[in-house]
């Protein structure tokens, strides 16, 4: 019977360097149908709960994805709890002649972490959604502001629909929930940056000044809402830069939801399309930049 050599264990794991994990033994020679055991030892306790799966490569270093091409029976994944460095032991069973290199890939199973999500992005988003919500609530519910709008745009239509109102309030609510998560979940060394604090204070001062001027009848409440919309526009222009910088520094997008970005982009495009269509229908494209 031809021997089947299982040789050259190699670590292909993005989360841990090779020196953190030890394969014992490093190589195994086996005969057909033979079963042998090996262990995976962690030098230090893992910082997070992780699931490890085995990867397979041939002698040329090419990944083997089809299990029927493996000379061994596929190995089951295993989970290691955060704070543990318990040795994992498993068995290898050969099913046909050949060579294969084993590697490890890990998946973070700790869902109670917010590391990787920029706190600056969250702060900017809260301010933006708050301004957007105030704009929508004012134009959708407040008769005085509606009257001011129609006085300025006699043939116009209120540029706020129920979906706009829901979108802004839903976004604000979700951001507030995320803030609570940031307060109670593991966040590592992440903090709100001084630049974000400075810009946020300036925006809040601008909002407060606009509100006080409207309350003193120095400007109309409609004008105040337009000023809020400028803050929202500014936030939209800058809010993703902190997340982009954080991803570049970490050289990773782990912790940041790409789906959130895609949905935000699609929602924004559709919102602008709706606004432009409504403005075109009523011959008032000049007002569309205010939403």
From TrEMBL:
Topology relative to the membrane:
Multi-pass membrane protein
Catalysed reaction(s) here are:
L-cystine(out) + H(+)(out) = L-cystine(in) + H(+)(in)
Q: Which SMART domains match?
A: CTNS
Output the superkingdom of the source species: Eukaryota
Span-the-membrane segments of this chain are 121-142, 162-184, 196-215, 221-241, 253-277
GO terms, molecular function: L-cystine transmembrane transporter activity
What Gene Ontology cellular component terms go with this record? endomembrane system; lysosomal membrane
Recite the UniProt keywords alphabetically. Membrane, Repeat, Transmembrane, Transmembrane helix, Transport
Keyword Transport recorded = yes
Q: Where in the cell is it found?
A: Endomembrane system
Q: InterPro entries, per this entry?
A: LC_transporter, PQ-loop_rpt
Q: Which family does it belong to?
A: Belongs to the cystinosin family.
Q: What is this protein called?
A: Cystinosin
Name the species this protein comes from. Taenia asiatica (Asian tapeworm)
Q: What taxonomic lineage is listed for the species of origin?
A: Eukaryota, Metazoa, Spiralia, Lophotrochozoa, Platyhelminthes
